[in-house]
Amino acid sequence: MVDYMEWLIKSHPTIVVEEQNLLASAYKHVLDPLRSSFKLLKVELQKAEEQKSPYSELNKMFLQQVGDEIRTIATRALRNVDMDMSKEHKCEESWIISLKLTGDYFRYLSEIGKDDDRVRDYEHSQVAYKQAQSLASKHLPQSHPLQLGIMLNSATLYHTILDKKEVALDMISTALEFAKTDLDQVSRVNAKQTTRLVKVLTAYKIRLEDEMRGE
């Protein structure tokens, strides 16, 4: 699926939103299981090291392999986004999608990175999300799912990478306020996506509030 969508996009002189979304979905289905595995292996490695388990080195090896695979795929995805941004864009939405995806893939790299590499990746992610949000605020209704998705993913960066829960909570709360406005300006399909995102945002808000109360 990824190979086919890459070929399709490379063969077109202009960027089409639907094709961007399909390629992003293809990468998501490849990367999400790997990211989940990486997080699980990281927890298991920490336990093994605390218990001085003889399997610590094996856990390290698996963690390294999964991390390398994530890095390879995310870097490949970023190259494709860069290629997209060098082409003609039919609408502002396609630019916003490209910037959001740049933020997403650099966030994935920061999840597996260390030291200076990690800092560089999350800084790139921050910049891309801010640029995407700036464009979205000018060209999309506040309740548009792309606008809400950028805010959700940016909040995830601040929560999971930068450990700034208050900033993340403010972003989620603002996104939920946005979701209540301008619904008449989005299509039926987008309205359904907005409804789904409201559920995700609400659950995330509850999770953040619970974490902050427990500190």
Written account of the structure:
Belongs to the 14-3-3 family. Residues 1-214 form the 14-3-3 domain. There is one protein chain. With 215 residues, this protein is mostly helical. It folds into 2 domains: 1-135, 14-3-3 domain (Delta-Endotoxin, domain 1, Up-down Bundle), CATH 1.20.190.20; 140-214. 82% of the residues lie in helices and 2% in strands. Strands 1-2 form a two-stranded parallel ribbon. Helix 6 (145-161) runs antiparallel to helix 7 (165-178).
**Could you say what the CATH architecture of the largest domain is?**
Up-down Bundle
Mean pLDDT rating: 89
How far from one another are the termini?
43 Å
What's the helix-strand series? HEHHEHHHHH
Which CATH first-tier class of the largest domain would you pick? Mainly Alpha
Largest sheet: 2 strands, parallel
Q: Which topology of the largest domain does CATH recognise?
A: Delta-Endotoxin, domain 1
Helix content range: over 70%
Proportion in β-strands = under 5%
CATH superfamily of the largest domain: 14-3-3 domain
| Whole-angstrom Rg | 18 Å
Family: Belongs to the 14-3-3 family.
Domain 14-3-3: 1-214
Site (Interaction with phosphoserine on interacting protein): 35, 107
Organism: Opisthorchis viverrini (Southeast Asian liver fluke)
